[in-house]
Amino acid sequence: MAYLLGFLQTDGTYMRNGPGKGRISIELAARDINILNAFQRLVPYPTSITMRSRTTNFSKGVYTSAVWSLGVAEARHALEALGLPPGRKSAIIKPPNRPFSEPDYVRALIDADGSVGFTGKGLPFVSFTTASPQLIAYVCAKVFEVTGVRRTVRPNQRDSIYNLLLTCESAVRFAHWIYYEGCLALERKHLKAVEVIGWVRPPGMKRQTPRRSWTPREDRVALTLPIAEAARRLRRTESSVAVRRHRLRTGVVRVRDG
């Protein structure tokens, strides 16, 4: 059920239509109907799967999707108690406040709002996108727990979206934790995850030195002192200070308190 909850939180819709009325649904491309069939078998309440075809701006010709729906009040209330809010939810969803299978839950988040695969340069990656500060904090904590890699992700300036990206060994370790053998998952992402898990760093390929994060104090120094002086005090290059100052002044990076 942890996988279903995570999928509903990130890619589902919960609409209330008045006292005692409402519907929970997930709409996916027809190619992913197998996961909806699995949800139908998993949920011990009547559900339906219908097909829908329409013309859209992002597909050539007719786009066909499959819609899984659940209307039973008892089931809706149970899912709501676990952490599925009705209405607009992208910025307020958070992990359940009771014990749950964490690999299954995180895998659902990645399946619904993330990606698994290889970059144009052939490097493995796992990514996740969300508008929820509580969800990104949770996933970053799991990344550190599983891989030992610390990620601090801040919302972008344009639409306050958090974008997490793991590459190389950290992506391999995280994918291995999420996509274990026999797990419930979108088939196409599971297949790609198996490829990622099998990646080995080629001989001679250098490891990147972890980037040094900027603190609020360093941001103030970069903004107020001449670039050469700021670079000397912060033990950074003048180029690094100049780029950071430009990003702070143009709003690409938010000025933080601290």
UniProtKB/TrEMBL annotation:
Pfam families associated with the record: LAGLIDADG_3
Gene3D superfamilies named among the record's database cross-references: Homing endonucleases
Domain Homing endonuclease LAGLIDADG: 105-176
Xref: InterPro entries: Homing_endonucl, LAGLIDADG_dom
SUPFAM superfamilies recorded: Homing endonucleases
Single GO molecular function: endonuclease activity
Protein's UniProt name: Homing endonuclease LAGLIDADG domain-containing protein
